[in-house]
Design brief:
Number of strands: 14
Number of helices: 15
Length: about 400
């Protein structure tokens, strides 16, 4: 999306805030046009010197300054809107939309923030200890600094809240699972929902008629099976660790590996958690987690990099086959997110050999990065293969506007 010029007027806008443990990403969005009026990020919060980037009115402003906490980080953001623009009052901000990772089994859609919602987000923190506390901090700081605007929470897990019980349930002791809220929650739900709805518009068919496989491939990666606009399966589980091979996460692994490493390697639970989340995946196998660097190593004949790419593609291909079986019929496969939108080697590699399932790739159409929705399957293919850029900020803005309007 392009940023607006000073002369453009917006009937209403939504400020979208994604508060991480040491960062605040933000975007001022026109939900009607889908345009990003302004965007930016505050990083290295709590360190000696933080960095700030603010993109608005056709220019980019970068600064380094102390940002001791999220409150100061958001003050810096609001100060940049005042100093550089666009003016938030003139932009008619009608809501602030917040991304929260884990809504558990409690939230199946966006909600207005109130004391009870805050309490429940905090209660769910053990399911997302790196995310929910930071998300909640951002909400509380933003409410204090923007008290006259309604605040809305959009949950990453909401799209998967009503997975079929057979898909959501782990085969462990039922009482233990219930007591400790152990089930499949998924993640990236805002992206999967947005892309699946975009697909229906792009192919000109009712969402209710389509069976889709959506592949959200970034540093974190997840797959979903979507039947008639409703999630039927997803690869991430209790946490975002399960499923596909990712940049630094292992994805699916025998649970006994944890026991084995604890008993025989003397590794603590925290050390194993660090291993599986930060030192595994593509990085664990090849030493890098940027796919451009990975492809360079493969071209140089690096065996570890070649194996890493093969493992990544194999896992993806396995999930496509599994979700084909879950859905019974697949109309569209959609690639999205950083790797899905930009890596033609991965897209072609994943689908090679699936022609018997009606899945084909036109190499010419597939070539290069895709910043716009693009069909990459040949004409007449039984399954339409597409690249559909995701836009989670726009999805959050539109959901927030729906809540405020309601």
């Amino acid at each position: 999306m392009s940023t607006s010029t000073p002369s453009e007027q917006h009937a209403a806008s939504v400020l979208v805030i994604n508060s991480g443990s040491s960062s605040i990403k933000y975007q001022l969005v026109d939900p009607d046009s889908g345009q990003a009026i302004a965007s930016g990020i505050v990083e290295q919060i709590g360190e000696g010197v933080g960095s700030v980037k603010h993109v608005a009115l056709g220019s980019t402003t970068r600064r380094e300054l102390p940002v001791p906490d999220h409150a100061e980080g958001l003050r810096v953001v609001l100060g940049l809107f005042d100093e550089i623009g666009p003016d938030l009052e003139a932009a008619h901000v009608v809501a602030v939309g917040h991304r929260v990772v884990q809504g558990g089994a409690l939230f199946d859609g966006p909600v207005l923030v109130d004391a009870e919602v805050e309490r429940l987000i905090e209660e769910l923190a053990p399911l997302a200890p790196l995310h929910n506390p930071a998300n909640l901090t951002g909400i509380r700081v933003a409410q204090a600094l923007l008290p006259d605007v309604p605040h809305v929470v959009v949950f990453d897990t909401a799209f998967f809240r009503h997975l079929p019980e057979a898909a959501a349930t782990y085969a462990i002791d039922a009482d233990v699972a219930a007591t400790h809220r152990v089930r499949r929650y998924g993640a990236h739900g805002t992206s999967h929902q947005y892309v699946s709805r975009q697909v229906a518009e792009l192919v000109g068919r009712p969402l209710a008629d389509l069976n889709q496989i959506v592949l959200h491939l970034g540093n974190g990666a997840s797959a979903s099976a979507v039947r008639g606009g409703v999630a039927a399966e997803t690869s991430m589980g209790l946490t975002p660790l399960e499923g596909l091979v990712m940049g630094t996460r292992s994805g699916d692994i025998d649970p006994a590996v944890v026991v084995h490493l604890h008993r025989n390697a003397g590794m603590s639970i925290d050390e194993i958690d660090d291993l599986l989340n930060r030192r595994s995946g593509i990085k664990g196998l090849s030493g890098v987690n940027d796919f451009r660097a990975l492809h360079d190593l493969v071209e140089q004949g690096d065996a570890g990099a070649r194996l890493a790419l093969d493992v990544y593609l194999h896992r993806l291909r396995k999930y496509i086959g599994a979700y084909y079986a879950v859905l019974g019929r697949v109309d569209v496969i959609a690639f999205t997110a950083g790797v899905g939108e930009n890596d033609d080697i991965v897209r072609a590699g994943v689908l090679t050999g699936l022609e018997g399932l009606g899945i084909e790739v036109d190499l010419e159409r597939n070539a290069g990065r895709k910043s716009e929705p693009t069909v990459i399957s040949p004409d007449g293919a039984r399954v339409t293969v597409m690249v559909v850029p995701t836009n989670e900020e726009l999805a959050i803005a539109r959901q927030a506007l729906e809540v405020v309007g309601a």
